[in-house]
Every structure is written in structure tokens, then in C-alpha cells.
Recover the amino acids of this structure.
């Protein structure tokens, strides 16, 4: 095999190794509150926001609230302001890690209730 072919093969294998490593480092599983409280890094946690605990600091645009699931409750800090329809959300999914007594979220996905839920209940 020519040296240029070896070099190309090495570059392809190195590129594949870097791709797999990057994928594994950015992999974030869905977990419950109880698992998130154990300090797992970079996880998705589905929560039901507790409306009475929602607070938005206007100066820093930091949203803090408590969320719950069937395994517990935890405080969430989200530094990017309040997403649209946050109060109407049936569930939010926060992405981040539990540090310093609160879940530090760097992303939040808001799941609004389905428009068909009312129709389904009305039929019964």
C-alpha cells in the first residue's frame, strides 16, 4: 500500500473515532428526579412545574421554579428567561445537571397540553 493510502486510512479512522467520542460525550438520557439529584451530568428531566414557585428575576433573566415527578421534587434554575406558554405547560423537560442544591438547566423544552384533550373528555 502506498504511504498516501495509509495516511488517508489513518485520517478516516481518526475522524470516525472523534465522531463517536463527540456523540458519546453529548449523549444525555432521560431520568427521573431521584436520579438527577444524584448528580448525573447532562441529563433530561421531565417535570410538572409547581406554579406557586415560579419566579423570574428581570435583571438577570433567570427563571427559578420547582418541578415534580412521581419520584420527588427539585428546584430548577434556568438562565435564559421564561419560555412562551410556560404557565400553560403540562410538562417541561429540563436539560442540565444538579449542582449546588439546584438543577442548573441550560435548555428547556415546554410541552403544552394537547388541543384534543378537551374533546376527549367532552365525549365521555
Amino acid at each position: 500500500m502506498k504511504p498516501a493510502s495509509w495516511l488517508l486510512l489513518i485520517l478516516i479512522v481518526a475522524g470516525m473515532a472523534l465522531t463517536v467520542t463527540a456523540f458519546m460525550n453529548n449523549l444525555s438520557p432521560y431520568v427521573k428526579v431521584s436520579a438527577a439529584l444524584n448528580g448525573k451530568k447532562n441529563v433530561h428531566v421531565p417535570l410538572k412545574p409547581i406554579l406557586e414557585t415560579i419566579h423570574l428575576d428581570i435583571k438577570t433573566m433567570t427563571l427559578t421554579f420547582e418541578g415534580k415527578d412521581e419520584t420527588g421534587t427539585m428546584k430548577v434554575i434556568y438562565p435564559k428567561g421564561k419560555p412562551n406558554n410556560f404557565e400553560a405547560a403540562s410538562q417541561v423537560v429540563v436539560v442540565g445537571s444538579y449542582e449546588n442544591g439546584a438543577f442548573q438547566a441550560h435548555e428547556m423544552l415546554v410541552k403544552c397540553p394537547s388541543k384534543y384533550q378537551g374533546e376527549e373528555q367532552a365525549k365521555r
